[in-house]
């Protein structure tokens, strides 16, 4: 599989990229032109106590964010993926693929796993159909016919949720390492080998996160924009987190877990509740938290690639983000219960800094939203120009990062995505906080025909 390589840009792509860049440049120019108005408002506000306090808080928050970014850069520079080990040293592993309404894509997922450069006798592949309503089971049977004893397939009597399917897989697993792969994801030939190598000779390693890229980035604009965001989230943020052994979330698309670490918390994970209700989302972040709590390290393997399908429609996208943010709120609470204890022998300062930054983003969601609405009503032109300037500055960081490690032309998708997020998805975090107790996967519908 060589789908990591990207095709050339189309005319529509160039139109979007150029338009987004021109809009941001116009915003920067407006800020320059409107500088007297910005200064007048600033001087007027500084005459009042609340205005001075707000300005002071703004400066402090800016300093904190810049300091955090520099800290992450320092950790990123330190990061090095673990080199792949020989066949003899590779542990036995069980790959668990839960599937629900994925259609033919689950067949492609299972075939990519079977084609892995990993000793056949050391891999057990289990796929569980979680009560699908489409032809997922047919394609799983098709994969079974082709792969024979290398693959075991099972059906849940009814749709119970991804956590239940994974639980069943964990219970049947015989490998020393458990690997979870989403049924809409394709792995490279060396992915499994690279993913499990950190466990060899490192007793502290409890879990490893894979490197997630977008599979359907040629199908629609949203996936294409998100690909740059994914690269920054994984290859920068998780690389930095890995340097202190504290990747905050092992993604459902691709993750590996030490068997002992999973079995130590499996029942607690399966029976997890929030506000008195069973938890049916965020199983990946929950498992990560429970493994960190045991004192294990959670690492990231930059060289363990997986390509995964992401929503192509706005409605499906915001539902996915709501689910992620609700999980983030819940698991921040859980992590807070142990992060400020001596939960592992090594330094706990790094994990605490990461958690506090997570909480800062949550806590500021409502004040920032309120200030934004006030600014829009009172000074719409100044708001628009200032917002575009901010987008240009912070998205340029992603552009620079992507261009440095991949290619320049694709990197510019950070600009339209940042504009898209700022003006159409800004409400996600405040809404997710307010509805953190709600259950439901939100996006588990019938798959589109491939």
From TrEMBL:
GO molecular function terms noted in the UniProt entry: glycosyltransferase activity
Primary site of residence: membrane
Record CDD domains: CESA_like (cd06423)
Transmembrane regions listed in the UniProt entry: 12-34, 54-77, 353-376, 382-402, 414-434
Transcription found in the keyword field: no
Subcellular localization(s) per the UniProt record: Cell membrane
Superkingdom: Bacteria
EC number: 2.4.-.-
This protein's UniProt keywords: Cell membrane, Glycosyltransferase, Membrane, Transferase, Transmembrane, Transmembrane helix
Major enzyme class: transferase
InterPro entries, per database record: Nucleotide-diphossugar_trans
The protein's name: Glycosyltransferase
Phylogenetic classification of the source organism: Bacteria, Pseudomonadati, Bacteroidota, Flavobacteriia, Flavobacteriales
């Amino acid at each position: 599989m060589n789908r990591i390589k990207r095709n050339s840009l189309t005319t529509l792509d160039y139109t979007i990229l150029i338009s987004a860049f021109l809009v941001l440049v116009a915003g920067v120019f407006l800020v320059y032109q409107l500088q007297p108005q910005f200064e007048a408002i600033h001087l007027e506000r500084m005459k009042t106590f609340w205005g001075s306090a707000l300005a002071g808080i703004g400066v402090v928050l800016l300093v904190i964010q810049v300091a955090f970014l520099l800290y992450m850069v320092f950790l990123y520079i330190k990061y090095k993926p673990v080199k792949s080990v020989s066949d003899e040293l590779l542990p036995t592993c069980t790959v668990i693929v839960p599937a629900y309404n994925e259609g033919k894509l689950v067949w492609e997922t299972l075939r990519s796993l079977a084609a892995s450069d990993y000793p056949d006798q050391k891999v057990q592949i289990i796929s569980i159909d979680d009560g699908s309503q489409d032809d997922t089971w047919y394609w799983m049977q098709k994969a079974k016919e082709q792969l024979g004893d290398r693959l075991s397939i099972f059906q849940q009597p009814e749709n119970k949720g991804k956590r239940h399917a994974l639980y069943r897989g964990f219970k049947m697993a015989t490998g020393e390492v458990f690997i979870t792969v989403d049924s809409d994801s394709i792995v490279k030939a060396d992915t499994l080998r690279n993913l499990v190598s950190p466990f060899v000779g490192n007793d502290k390693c409890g879990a490893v996160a894979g490197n997630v890229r977008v599979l359907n980035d040629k199908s629609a604009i949203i996936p294409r924009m998100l690909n740059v965001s994914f690269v920054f989230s994984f290859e920068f943020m998780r690389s930095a987190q890995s340097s202190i052994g504290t990747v905050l979330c092992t993604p459902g698309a691709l993750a590996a877990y030490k068997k002992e670490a999973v079995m130590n918390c499996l029942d607690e994970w399966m029976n997890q509740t929030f506000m008195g209700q069973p938890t049916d989302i965020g199983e990946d972040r929950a498992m990560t938290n429970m493994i960190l709590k045991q004192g294990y390290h959670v690492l990231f393997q930059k060289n363990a690639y997986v390509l995964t399908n992401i929503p192509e429609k706005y409605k499906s996208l915001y539902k996915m983000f709501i689910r992620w943010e609700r999980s983030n709120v819940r698991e921040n609470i859980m992590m807070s219960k142990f992060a400020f204890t001596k939960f592992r022998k090594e330094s706990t300062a790094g994990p605490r800094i990461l958690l506090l930054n997570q909480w800062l983003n949550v806590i500021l969601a409502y004040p920032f939203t309120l200030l934004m609405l006030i600014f829009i009503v009172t000074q719409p032109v100044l708001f628009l120009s200032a917002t575009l300037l901010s987008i240009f500055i912070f998205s340029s960081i992603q552009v620079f990062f992507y261009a440095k490690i991949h290619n320049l032309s694709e990197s510019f998708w950070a600009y339209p995505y940042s504009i898209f997020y700022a003006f159409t998805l800004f409400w996600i975090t405040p809404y997710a906080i307010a509805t953190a107790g709600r259950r439901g996967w939100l996006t588990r519908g019938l798959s589109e025909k491939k």
